[in-house]
Every structure is written in C-alpha cells, then in structure tokens.
Design the sequence.
C-alpha cells in the first residue's frame, strides 16, 4: 500500500481538535507584526546560509513540502476536471503529472539514514532539517506503507521529535499527548532551541 | 469524409480567415446596469447593451420616466461582459494594456478575469508599475483543457460610483480601451504533461503596440458565463444586512449594501478619551460566539477600568444591540464612562446622518437617522430604560434638539471628531451588571423597545445558535465548533475593491492593513489577502457555511497574478508578483465540492487553479531531479526583472522562504 494517509489521520498523538485549533491559529493571529521591512510586515529572521541562485531565481533545494502539494493539487485538479466535464485527456494529463512528481519524491527525497522524507540539494546531499513538511508526501501516496509507519512511529509520535510534551498536554496533565500542535522543526534539531520561531 | 490529416491542414486556414473577418463580424457589446443608489444594490433602474465599453451615470429623460424630481444622474453603474481573445498561433501568450478613463467617480474599478487592471485612484493611490496586472498577460488554455487553444474568454466587470448626489460636479463616467501589445519575445505557455526540463530562466521581454493595420483579435460579448453570474449573485446576496464588515474595526457595525457604519464607542469622560475601534493586535477586544447569519454575535472589550460585553442580533436590516457592564476597577466608578453611538457612511458612500433630540418628540426615542439616496431612512433608536419608556440614563443635554440637528454629508473619512456632540447618541455606561440597548430599523420606528426586550432577544438568539451548533456537531464538539465558526466569521470583511464581496483576510490587525503599500485613502479600504492562509479559512467556514466559504475562495483564487499564480499577498491590485505560497486551492475546492456538490463553483476557479499548477512547471522546477523548489522572480512588462517584491535590503532568499508560507521556519536556516 502506498497510501500513508490512513496512518496520518489515525495516529494517536494529535487529536482532531488539536489540528483544528492549529488552523484557528493560522487564521486568527498567525504572524507577529514588524513595521520595519519595506513591503512586508514579515519579521526578518537572521539565518545562516544562502541557498538562493539569482540566475535561476530558485533556492537550490528540492522542497519536499512544495513538491508534495504540487502533486496533491494535480490530483485534485484531475478530480475537479472530471466533475465539470472537461475532456478525459485533461484528466489523464493531470493524473500523469501528479504521478510523475510523486515518483520523483519517492525516488529522490526519501532519506534512508533519517528514515523520513527531507529536502535535498541538487548534488544529492540530504538537507536534514525535518519540519512538518516532511510528512506531506503522505498526502500524495509517495510513501510505502512501511515508510509511513516508520515516519509516524519514529518521528510523529516520538516525544523527542514532534510529539513534544513539555508540560503534558495543553492543560498540563497528560504527558502522553502532544502539546498543542507540531513544532516547526523537530525537537532534536539544533535549530529547535536556537530559534524562537519553533 | 474528411481525414484527420486533411482536417489538420484545412482548419487552420479557416481559422485564419475567421481572424481576418473578425473585425467585420463583431462589434463591442457589453451590458450596462444603472442604479439610483451608490452601491449597485437591488434591481437596476436601467439596463441594456452598449457597443462601446463605456458607462455614464447620466440619467437620460425618457417619456416613461420623466420626472422633474429625478436627479440628473444615477449614483452607481456597472458593466459586465466577456472579453474574448484570439491567438494567432497555438501556445502563444499575448499582452493587453488597458486604458481606463474615469471621470467624476468617487469609486471605480475594472476587472478582467478577476485582475484589477484599473482603479480610479480615489480608494487607493495610482498603482505602482510592476506590482499590478496591467499590462495583462493572456495565455491560451491547454489543448487538453479546451480542445483548442486559439481563444480565451475572460470575464469582464467594471463598477463605478458617485457620491455627488446632485450631479453638480459633473456626470461620473468610465471608458475602457485596450491595446494588444506585441512582445518581442513572447512567453511560451507551459503546455506540458510531465514536469519539464525547464531551466527556469524567464526571458525578459519588451512590449510594443501592435501595428495599427493588424486586425483586432478580440471581441466583447454582453454577458458573463453562467458560473460567473452565479458568483455575483452569491456574493451580493451574502453581503446584505448588518455585520462587522470593517477590516480595521471589530466594534463598528456596517449595514450593507448602504454602507452605514455604526460605532458604539466606550468613552472615559474625565480624560475625554474613547475606545473608538478595536482590533486584536491592540489587545482591546476578545471575541465570542459569532453566528454565520449574525442572529447572535458577542464580544468583550476592556478599556481603562471597565470591562463590557457587547452583543448584537441582526435580522435582515433590523439590528438589536446590547451593552452590559461586567466589571469595573474598585477605585473608579462607571459614572466616569459613557457610550457614544457614532454614525457615518463608509467607502465614500453618500448619505446624511442626523441626530434627533427625543426631548422634543412625543415618542421620546433618541435617534440617529441615516438617509442615503435610493435607500430611504435607517433609524437607530436607544432603548428605553426597561418597562417605563423612560430614558433615565440619558445624559441631559447630550443630544441635540430636532431644530439643532446637524447633517453630516459625505462623512466617510473614518476619523470622527471626539468633541463634536452632534455626531452621536450619548448615554452613561450602565451600572455594574446592568445593560443598555439600542436598535435599528424596528418594524415600527415609533414603537418603543426596552432594554429588557433586547436582553430577552439576546438570550433567545444565543440559545438558538448554541442549540443549532450542538445539534449539528454534537455536544462534545460544541466548544470546537463555536471556536471554528467564530474564528471564520470574525475575519469576514467587506471591500468594494474585491468585487464588492465578503472575504476572509488572514487577520484584522493593523499590521496587515497594507495601507502604506496601496496608499489606501481611508482605513475603510485597507485589507490584504494571503494565499494559503485564506484558503484554509474557506475550509474552516465550509464546515458549516457554503456561501462564506465560496465567496472567500473566489476572491483568493481571483487574486492570481497575470502570469498565473496566486500570489503570496494581494491588496487593492498590488501583489507580490515574484512569489506564490503553498498551493492548496484545488484541494480546498475539491473538499468543498465533496461537501456541497456545486459544479458551478468549480467552474469559477478551475482554470485559474490549472494555470497555477502549470506555472509551477514553468517556473519552479529545479534540475536535475525535476522537483519543486522555492523561488522569487518577476519579469515586468517593461523588460525589467526583479527578484523579491521589495525595494531594497531584503535578501533574495528571504523572499523564497516566504514562498514556503512558513515564513521564519528554522527549516531554512542552514
């Protein structure tokens, strides 16, 4: 089975209420203001490194999250095209488009060492900073059932990585449940403590 | 029987002949609608088709309508139709430059396929070049999508309004002309089945006006598609009645389509200071339950030493409002506070606000009267002090007499003068745990309503809404459902610049006003749409309210750039032309379709979402593996190429990080 979605939706760590609450956070007050930057109130974090190539205008990093969402969109468009009676050629093209990108994700972005999908440099080196986007291939069917189980057990439910529970649950009394939502970077990543944006 | 190969040779010849004859076969024809109110509201007084893409609010007298009392102009008008563009070769995009001449308008917008290509520079300053979709790139549809790729139909809308009710300043009008531009290097459309081997270098181009002798390769058709017409119907129906529709103020109530803005202010008398607006980042408001139909809405405000609860119930044009004093610092007294109910018209809408002194009237009802052409009168009345029809709380002398009534015409600057008693009703803050109410548009405006009656209405409406939610989602989900629904509704706002629709910006905070970037002339016009944040908002609203979910979905997807992607952010026609955000539009649309089964709603956004997916293939594929990468680049029509939609000082990689939608994620910190 290539569909890891079941694992994603049925895992025990996060309740549906947690997810919904996280969405509410997105909608209501996700970002903090910063009046300093021209054309954007986004706060500019101080980062190390610059992977951006001016010639191609691309960050030189295969992005597992964006690639996965591209696939999800292609598959969704295929369904929608059929719904409104577009030509079968279009439906087939969109499915093929999604399949092609899904296969590239499966071929290039699974990191055997980390046992999860991660971003990767064009030279083949894995970029081992694991964020929630590493789970996005589960939306696409890029993961085998075995890979999905490993990701859920080793990463999603791992209290030293994504199932962090600093003081139990949100009410502080249930150490077996995750705290609120997922951190923006795995808790065992050096950036987890270095950043105030996690 | 014609063979495939014969057809393939012959059909292009027929097509060329068709293009050559197109100017002879067609004339411009769009539909106009004229209204005697300044809000495109209700049935148009006059409608028809025009051979020119022009609109005038001049009221021509006719035998049937001659009336000496009629003003010489209409107050709003719209053009609708479809711009059909033909391509000379398959797969080749073209550019159109739109020249819009607005005369004497108070508000004017022109949209082509959802792109705000022109505005009259009253609501926003003239759009800076490079950030807006004019010139507009028009690309053929995929061959797989349409069966051919020689033409494309683009929905066209234009809205103009005037607040010169006497037409003394001249007649408002609009004319639109367009020029087809030849690109020295035309964009190739990404007609690709599998990820391309594109090098992602976008070729700079220069545009020049097409030779005058070349045939016009476009024509105007007088109607919108059925799906686009349904979109307008849904959005106008949704935007009706009282609601908290101002981005910058969760305290004010707005009555649509009139544009009445009613603001109950909490004032501290000794310091002469008022809490006259509230938004989340200033920490002055805590929101509560918000019914989708506004049958019950509540929020709480803290100001200086007092804490009050505000509740309202809107039923059509009727409004009931209740203010309750919850807590007060023991060192102070409620006597130091008062409520001032201000009125004005928003978004440059014309109208007069009049304060009426109850003391000279039989009915003893302090009132604000709102009068706008085409809408009649809206009356806001203070409730009497429960059962004795007595306004005992009314501060003596606080309301002007009828003879002293003042008219506040065209007061839409959003900046009230705190010292002007004539602008508002004024009543002391009720004592602890007590309430004061007011109402608008009572069925019988002469009939008194008491605060106790309004309390009963609130109690009943709150219980009804909670029962509805509990029944639909179950008792265990009540709290979560209330949170989702309220989060969705408290972000729902109105802005005429967004097709006059309701939509859900990411936040109502001042930080997200983008006033400095759009040059919005008043806070009424401020807003910003974000890509995936706002699409998630449609998903939230779609759990229980189709109309809100659709209206927001349409506006977010229609914020797309000319090159085909939904931008990181969009406000008043100004967009981040260099970057998108995570694409979730098709997924959200699919989820809404699975729930509501409306193919027409899919039709409205499908081609835009397909363009967006295509755009990734042409612009965001990193080799050699051919996977998606984050990026930032924009080629302007003048040939300039920019990375980052930021003038100076921001690293290019930061703009690419912003495209991730996880703006400061430590994931991109090496």
Sequence:
């Amino acid at each position: 089975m290539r569909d890891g979605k079941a694992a994603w939706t049925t895992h025990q760590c996060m309740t549906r209420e947690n997810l919904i609450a996280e969405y509410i956070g997105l909608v209501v007050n996700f970002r903090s203001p910063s009046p300093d930057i021209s054309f954007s109130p986004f706060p500019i974090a101080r980062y190390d490194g610059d992977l951006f190539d001016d010639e191609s205008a691309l960050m030189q990093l295969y992005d597992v999250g964006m690639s996965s969402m591209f696939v999800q969109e292609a598959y969704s468009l295929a369904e929608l095209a059929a719904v409104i009676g577009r030509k079968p050629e279009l439906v087939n093209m969109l499915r093929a488009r999604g399949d092609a990108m899904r296969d590239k994700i499966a071929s290039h972005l699974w990191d055997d060492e980390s046992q999860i999908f991660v971003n990767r440099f064009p030279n083949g080196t894995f970029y081992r900073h694991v964020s929630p986007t590493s789970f996005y291939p589960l939306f696409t069917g890029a993961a085998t059932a075995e890979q999905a189980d490993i990701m859920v057990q080793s990463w999603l439910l791992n209290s030293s990585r994504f199932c962090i529970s600093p003081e139990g649950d949100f009410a502080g009394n249930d150490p077996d449940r995750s705290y609120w939502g997922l951190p923006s970077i795995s808790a065992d990543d050096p950036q987890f403590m270095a950043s105030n944006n996690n | 029987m014609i063979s495939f190969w014969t057809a393939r040779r012959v059909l292009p010849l027929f097509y060329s002949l068709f293009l050559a004859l197109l100017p002879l076969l067609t004339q411009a024809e769009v539909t106009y609608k004229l209204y005697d109110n300044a809000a495109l509201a209700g049935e148009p007084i006059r409608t028809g088709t025009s051979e020119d893409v022009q609109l005038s609010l001049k009221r021509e007298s006719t035998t049937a309508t001659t009336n000496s009392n009629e003003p010489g102009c209409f107050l709003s008008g719209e053009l609708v139709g479809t711009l059909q563009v033909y391509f000379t070769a398959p797969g080749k995009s073209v550019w159109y430059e739109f020249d819009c001449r607005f005369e004497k308008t108070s508000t004017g917008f022109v949209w082509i396929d959802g792109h705000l290509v022109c505005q009259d520079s009253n609501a926003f300053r003239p759009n800076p070049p490079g950030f807006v979709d004019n010139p507009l790139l028009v690309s053929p549809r995929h061959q797989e999508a349409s069966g051919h790729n020689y033409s494309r139909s683009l929905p066209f809308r234009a809205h103009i309004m005037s607040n010169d009710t006497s037409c003394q300043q001249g007649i408002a009008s609009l004319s639109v002309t367009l020029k087809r531009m030849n690109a020295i290097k035309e964009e190739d459309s990404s007609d690709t089945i599998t990820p391309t081997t594109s090098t992602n270098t976008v070729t700079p181009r220069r545009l020049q006006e097409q030779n005058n002798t070349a045939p016009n390769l476009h024509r105007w058709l007088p109607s919108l598609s059925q799906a686009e017409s349904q979109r307008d119907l849904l959005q106008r129906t949704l935007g009706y009645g009282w609601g908290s529709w101002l981005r910058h103020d969760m305290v004010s109530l707005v009555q649509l389509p009139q544009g009445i803005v009613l603001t109950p202010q909490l004032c501290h008398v000794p310091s002469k200071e008022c809490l006259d607006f509230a938004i989340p980042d200033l920490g002055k408001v805590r929101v509560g339950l918000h019914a989708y139909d506004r049958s019950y809405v509540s929020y709480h405000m803290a100001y200086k030493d007092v804490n009050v609860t505000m509740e309202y119930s809107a039923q059509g044009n009727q409004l009931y409002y209740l203010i309750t004093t919850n807590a007060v610092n023991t060192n102070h007294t409620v006597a130091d506070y008062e409520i001032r109910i201000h009125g004005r018209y928003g978004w440059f809408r014309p109208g007069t606000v009049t304060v009426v002194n109850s003391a000279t009237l039989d009915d003893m009802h302090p009132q604000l009267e709102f009068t706008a052409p085409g809408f009649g009168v809206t009356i806001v009345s203070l409730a009497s002090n429960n059962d004795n029809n007595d306004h005992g709380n009314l501060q003596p002398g606080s309301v002007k007499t009828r003879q002293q009534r003042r008219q506040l015409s065209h007061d839409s600057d959003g900046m009230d003068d705190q010292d002007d008693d004539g602008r508002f009703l004024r009543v002391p803050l009720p004592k602890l745990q007590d309430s004061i109410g007011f109402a608008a548009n009572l069925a019988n405006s002469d009939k008194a309503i008491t605060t106790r009656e309004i309390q009963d209405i609130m109690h009943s409406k709150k219980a009804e809404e909670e029962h509805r939610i509990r029944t639909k989602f179950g008792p265990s989900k009540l709290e979560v459902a209330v949170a989702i629904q309220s989060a969705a509704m408290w972000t729902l706002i109105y802005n005429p610049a967004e097709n006059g629709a309701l939509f859900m910006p990411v936040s109502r905070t001042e930080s997200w006003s983008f006033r400095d970037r759009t040059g919005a002339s008043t806070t009424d016009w401020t807003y910003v749409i974000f890509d995936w944040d706002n699409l998630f908002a449609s998903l939230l609203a779609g759990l229980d309210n189709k109309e809100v979910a659709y209206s927001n979905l349409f506006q977010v997807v229609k914020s797309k750039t000319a090159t085909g992607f939904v931008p990181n952010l969009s406000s008043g026609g100004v967009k981040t032309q260099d970057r998108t955000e995570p694409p979730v539009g098709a997924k959200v649309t699919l989820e809404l379709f699975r729930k509501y089964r409306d193919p027409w709603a899919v039709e409205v956004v499908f081609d835009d979402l397909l363009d967006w997916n295509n755009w990734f293939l042409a612009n965001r594929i990193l080799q050699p593996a051919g996977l998606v990468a984050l990026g930032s680049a924009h080629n302007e029509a003048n040939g300039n190429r920019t990375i980052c939609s930021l003038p100076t000082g921001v690293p290019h990689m930061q703009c690419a990080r912003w495209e991730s939608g996880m703006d400061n994620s430590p994931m991109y910190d090496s």
Confidence is low (pLDDT under 50) at residues 1-42 of chain A.
